[in-house]
Amino acid sequence: MSALFDGDPRESGHFPGLSRIGALLADPGRAAMLWALMDGSARPAGELTMIAGLSPSAASAHLARLTEGGLLSLEVRGRHRYYRIASAEVATAVEALANLAQASAPQRMSPRPARTVPLDLRYARTCYDHMAGELAVRVFDRLLTRDWLIERDGLVETTDAGTQALARWGIDLAQPRARRRRFACTCLDWSERRAHLGGALGAALLEHWCAQGCVERAEKPRVLRITPAGRKHFEALLAP
Questions:
Q1: For 154-173, what is the HEC assignment?
Q2: Does 231 have pLDDT greater than 60?
Q3: How distant is the alpha carbon of residue 61 from its chain centre?
Q4: Residues 98, 172: one domain?
Q5: Which domain-ending residue is among 86, 103, 130?
Q6: Which of 20, 54, 86 is the C-terminal boundary of a domain?
């Protein structure tokens, strides 16, 4: 059974593991470290310690809890220890909780309006291993209206036309279908409050755009830069 659902036997049945996962996420330092890793990167313990504003000993204890709890995975490279989000399912859950936190904030603690989010972060960014932001939402809408994709109850599938179009782009759908995760699904965008494309297909599209030189990772965490070639590509894709 997944580590996400192991633990206290009282948590079997109707709410498996919820309080344990909630406890892991409740500490601000641990939450900061998780959010810093939502770009799909692996970061060293020292960098995460600085991001969280913790002492090395406290950060080490928090990282151990997150790893033992199944939310982070550890990679040892020589003398250095690197941490990353353990799985796409964990990343999806963290993103969903960020959306919930924003939507459920009391009026006196209302979330920062989307218009105050830095423009580059709002326009195009990573959501774990796929693209998020205004551009990603518009692209997803366009793929639906072109009948390349169909969506039902949050699950997404390609049409015959979509399969052929993606094949012309050089995307072999057999690879994302073979991954041990959802092939394609909606992912609520926290700045746009609408869905972009997630799942293995969303990751394959971002991989493709990066390989084709349409999209580059910027120096700022999670921000994606659209290249001149990418602007032409997306303009053509989004054209009526």
A1: CEEEECHHHHHHHHHCCCCC
A2: yes
A3: 25
A4: yes
A5: 86
A6: 86
Range of the domain at 113: 90-238
The rounded radius of gyration (Å) of the Cα atoms in the chain is 19
Question: Which two structure tokens, joined as six digits, stand for 227?
Answer: 């290249």
Burial of 198 (0-12, 13-18, 19+ CB in 10 A): buried
CA separation for the pair 153, 138 (Å, rounded): 19
The reported pTM is: 0.72
Q: Are residues 113 and 174 in the same domain?
A: yes
Output the DSSP codes for 68-91: HTTSEEEEEETTEEEEEES-HHHH
More confident residue, 121 or 177: 177
Question: Which of the four pLDDT bands, split at 50, 70 and 90, describes residue 117?
Answer: low
Same-domain check for residues 72 and 46: yes
Indicate if 58 and 145 belong to the same structural domain.
no
Number of domains in the chain: 2
What tokens were used for 33?
């470290």
Output 116 or 154, whichever has higher pLDDT.
154
Phi-psi region of 46 (alpha: psi -120 to 50; beta: other; left: phi over 0): alpha
Residue 36 and residue 138 in one domain: no
> What's the confidence (pLDDT) of residue 5?
42
| pLDDT, tens only, 133-185 | 999 999 999 999 999 999 999 899 999 999 999 999 999 999 889 887 889 99
